[in-house]
Amino acid sequence: SQTIHQWPATLVQPVGSPLSLECTVEGTSNPNLYWYRQAAGRGLQLLFYSVGIGQISSEVPQNLSASRPQDRQFILSSKKLLLSDSGFYLCAWTSGQIGNQPQHFGDGTRLSIL
Amino acid sequence: DQQVKQNSPSLSVQEGRISILNCDYTNSMFDYFLWYKKYPAEGPTFLISISSIKDKNEDGRFTVFLNKSAKHLSLHIVPSQPGDSAVYFCAAREAYSGAGSYQLTFGKGTKLSVIP
């Protein structure tokens, strides 16, 4: 069966520090991968998605970036965090096959910027 | 511009009764709709979905209804149980248009509280 892992579960970082959040998927090949953010009192906002290694599409301009160095690995990064980057970050995957496929989410990373 | 709207931020229901969660959308290109359930400090869990070619999909206690003319969908939970207490997100996806599709647009969620 397929599983998705995100780490760390919680992270407290000072303003201006770098960020690296990692997400890996097991049990499937060539998944579509997604990074979402949920700010307090808001819905889920899509940040980045990837349909293959090295292919990244950004939905929201910001100081975050994403990379996909391997088929089942998706990384969210920042060189300098802002206070507004606080939130709950979720990674998700879906099958790369065409059709009606739900996205499946990891357990998320709670990021607090001080 | 919020394309998926869940106008009720919260809902309280007695155990054993029906819970009805509502969702409205504005984008006529949406053709696939999903409901997710989320507990605090966890990722959303997929519950049930419906394609635009259907108007109803049922899975155990969960039924999703789609009214395309009204651009409205609803999730019915019968009977409601205390373990159903969570935040429920409605999501929608546009018809497949090539590489890079499958992005979901989410509503802001409705917090359901099932009272024992």
Class from helix and strand fractions of chain A: mainly beta
Strand content of chain B: over 45%
Count every beta strand of chain B, where a strand is a DSSP E run of 2 or more residues.
11
- The residue-averaged pLDDT of chain A reads 91
Which pair of chains has the greatest number of interface residues, and how are they split between the two chains?
A-B, 29 and 25 residues
State the order of secondary-structure elements of chain B, H for helix, E for strand: EEEEEEEEEEE
Radius of gyration of chain A: 14 Å
Low-pLDDT runs of 5+ residues of chain A are none
How much helix, percentage-wise, in residues of chain A?
A: under 10%
Q: What is the H-and-E element order of chain A?
A: EEEEEEEEEEE
**Structure classification of chain B:** mainly beta
Overview of this structure, please?
- The complex is a heterodimer of chains A (114) and B (116).
- Chain A contains no helices and 11 strands.
- Chain A is globular.
- Chain A has strands at residues 3-7, 10-13, 19-26, 32-38, 44-52, 55-58, 64-70, 73-78, 87-94, 104-105, 109-113.
- With 114 residues, chain A is mainly beta.
- In chain A, the strands form 2 sheets. In chain A, strands 2, 4, 5, 6, 9, 10 and 11 form a 7-stranded mixed beta sheet that branches. A 4-stranded antiparallel beta sheet of chain A has the order 1-3-8-7, with no helix packed on it.
- By secondary structure, chain B is mostly beta strands.
- Helix content of chain B is 0%, strand content 55%.
- Chain B has no helices and 11 strands.
- Chain B has strands at 4-5, 10-14, 19-25, 30-38, 45-51, 56-59, 62-67, 72-77, 86-94, 104-106, 110-115.
- In chain B, the strands form 2 sheets. In chain B, strands 2, 4, 5, 9, 10 and 11 form a 6-stranded mixed beta sheet that branches. Chain B has a 5-stranded antiparallel beta sheet with strand order 1-3-8-7-6, with no helix packed on it.
- Chain B is globular and about 45 Å long.
- The N and C termini of chain B lie far apart (38 Å).
- The mean pLDDT of chain B is 92.
- The A-B interface holds A 6, 9, 32, 34, 36, 41-46, 49, 51, 57, 59, 90, 92, 94, 98, 100-108, 110 and B 4, 32, 34, 36, 41-46, 49, 51, 89, 91, 96, 99-100, 102-109.
